[in-house]
Design goal:
single chain, mainly alpha, 3% strand, two-stranded antiparallel sheet
Length: 294
């Protein structure tokens, strides 16, 4: 069976690859949207945090024999703690001035992290094995689904939806939103707003690290893996609407699928299709698909 002259199995395989990429786009753009939506910081260091999360998993495996499942817990905690340190020592000095300074600071931090890891590990890349429990593939009849890629899609979407529910549907999320809009009023009710801000940035960093751990068995771990992806992720956030958490999730998955289909029908355009869509969306709706018009 063929679809537009392409064998069905090849078509579905490319669609699956697009869905996997879309899951990573969703997780990374989710962390960006959380940090921007709640703190107003354009966090250019997000790609570096994603890369560091993957390296934490690899280092834990190589030096201490710590497997994938523990790395999924350890890497977000380690990178989240790093994010808290950055927020407390550097970013908190910039909250009341032009946001461009925060962007420049985080961009500089990303360059420093990338340079340090290139100096230490080079650019050849490190391999990270698929965990034993997720080895192999499942025959679905119409295609063979690698077990690990199926797990990545499921885990990414579960994490994204859980984060959205936490921020949009719980009392803690309402405190976070209120604290960013009117911190003095919220503090008057006894809520520790600086602590919430610190933990929010740490949580966003942890989400990036978790995406890095999930990506480690799929791609080579290199110091450039974050910088190669962050521009596309920023485009996803802009299309979904800066600060829109649900918009980032839906747009990330959708653009991953569109990118995968483009590789099937017109491979030459696969590297620019996201940016073409971004240009069209911004012309029609400058605030993004799910953003709030001012």
């Amino acid at each position: 069976m063929e679809i537009f002259g392409i064998p069905l199995q090849a078509f579905l395989g490319q669609l699956l690859l697009g869905l996997v990429n879309g899951s990573f786009y969703a997780m990374l753009s989710l962390g960006l949207a959380v940090i921007f939506g709640l703190l107003g910081i354009v966090n250019f260091a997000h790609g570096a945090l994603y890369m560091i999360g993957a390296y934490v998993a690899w280092f834990a495996m190589e030096k201490f024999g710590i497997g994938f499942w523990w790395a999924l817990l350890i890497a977000p905690v380690v990178v989240g703690a790093l994010g808290v340190l950055v927020e407390r020592t550097l970013l908190k000095q910039l909250y009341n001035i032009d946001p461009i300074y925060g962007l420049l600071l985080t961009f500089g931090l990303a360059l420093i992290a990338e340079g340090l890891f290139r100096e230490q590990f080079g650019v050849s890349g490190q391999q990270y094995a698929v965990p034993d429990a997720l080895q192999g593939a499942t025959n679905l009849g119409f295609m063979v689904l690698p077990n690990y890629r199926g797990f990545v899609v499921f885990a990414s979407l579960l994490i994204c939806l859980a984060t959205w529910w936490l921020i949009e549907r719980t009392r803690l999320g309402s405190y976070l939103r209120a604290g960013t809009e009117n911190p003095k009023l919220v503090q008057a009710f006894g809520v520790n707003v600086p602590l919430m801000v610190m933990l929010t940035y740490g949580a966003g960093a942890g989400l990036a690290a978790m995406a890095g751990v999930l990506a480690a068995p799929v791609i080579q771990i290199t110091p450039l893996m974050g910088s190669n992806l962050i521009i596309v992720v920023f485009a996803v956030v802009v299309i979904g609407g800066m600060g829109s958490i649900l918009g980032s999730i839906l747009t990330g998955v959708a653009l991953g699928l569109i990118e995968g289909l483009t590789k099937v029908f017109y491979p030459e355009a696969s590297s620019i299709v996201v940016f073409v869509i971004m240009a069209i969306v911004l012309m029609i709706r400058p605030a993004g698909l799910f953003g709030k018009e001012k």
